[in-house]
Amino acid sequence: MGGASFIAGDWGTSNLRLSLCDAQGTVLDGRTGPGAADSGGRFADILQSLTAPWQTSESPLPTVLCGMVGSNIGWTEAPYVACPVLPEDVADACVAMCGGRVHIVPGLSCSNRFNAPDFLRGEETQILGALHLVEALRRERRLLCLPGTHTKWVVLQDGAVREFLTAPTGELFALLCEHGVLLRGNGRTSEHDADAFLKGLAHFNQFPQAELLHRLFECRSRQLSGEFSLAEATGYLSGLLVASDVQGALSALTEPLAARSVYLIGAPELTRRYAAALGSHGRDTCAVDGSAASLAGLAQVHRRLSRQAAA
Q1: How many domains does the chain have?
Q2: Which of 67, 118, 227, 292 is an S-S bond match for 11, by CB 3.0 to 4.6 Å?
C-alpha cells in the first residue's frame, strides 16, 4: 500500500489494536484481534494473519508493539526499565523479534513514595506520545494521571520519567460492582449517574479526614433509605473512589511542581471524571486522548529504531 511505513500495535490483556501508519504516524488502516490472555501462545501467527494484507514479500513493514505482549503472559518478556528514564532509553530497550522486523516496547519500574516496588506496562508508550504531543511536558516538573483499571500517577522532570504511583481504582470499582453487596441487585449497572458521581466527590471532600473504608457502605445505605437508585449508587461509588485516588495522589506527589496543572491521558469519559475531581482541589487539567498518545508513542519509537538502523 502506497505511503505505508510501519505497523503500530497496542496488544493489551483483552484486545489487540493494529494500525497501518505512514512515516508521520498517520493511520491508513486498522485491524483488531484477541488480547494477550486469549492468544494462546500464537502471537506470531495472529500478527502475521492480521497484517498479511499490508505486507509485501519484497519489503516487509517493521512492526512496533506495546502492552501486555511484552509481559509474562505475552509473546516474550520485555524487561522493565528502571526509573528515572528518558524517552530514548525506552526505545533503546525494545526487544527485537522475528529477525528484527518486530520490536516490543518494555515497561517501567520504580520504587514509589511508599518504598514499594511499582510497575507499569503499556502506559510508557502513552507517556512517550504525550511528550511528543504536549511540548510543556518536556520542561520542568510535571504531574501526569493515566486513569484506568490501574490508574498511574507519573512525575516527569524535564521530560524524564522520575517516578510513578499506581492505584487500582478501576479494578476496585469493578470488584465492588460485580462481586459485592454494596450495590443492590448484586450486578454492575451500565448506567453511572453523573450527578451522583459529583455528589460522591463533594461528600468525600466534605470529610477529607475520613478513611475510604468508612464511606463505602453509604453506597448501600443511601439505597436502603430510598435516596439513591442503583444507577445513582453506582455513580456515587465511582465518585468516592476517584476522590480518594485524587486526594491521595495530590498529597503524595505534588511537591514541587512547575504549575498547578495535571495532565490527563486516557479515554475521554475517564479523563472527564478525573478532571472534575482535580478541579475540586483547584487543579487545572489538560486532557490527551489515550489512543492518540499510544499511537504517537509507537511512532516515536519507530523513528528512533529507524535512525539507529540507518546509522
Answers
A1: 1
A2: 67
The mean per-residue pLDDT over the stretch 126-151 comes to 96
For residues 196 and 243, give the distance between their C-alpha atoms in angstroms, rounded to a whole number.
13
Rounded to two decimals, the pTM is 0.94
271 part of a folded domain: yes
Residue numbers of the domain that contains 231:
135-311
For residue 272, the domain's CATH number is 3.30.420.310
191 belongs to a structural domain: yes
Query: Does some domain include residue 240?
Result: yes
Contact (Cβ atoms closer than 8 angstroms) between residue 149 and residue 197:
no
pLDDT, tens digit (0-9, with 9 covering 90-100), for 240-286: 999 999 999 999 997 777 668 999 999 999 999 999 999 999 999 99
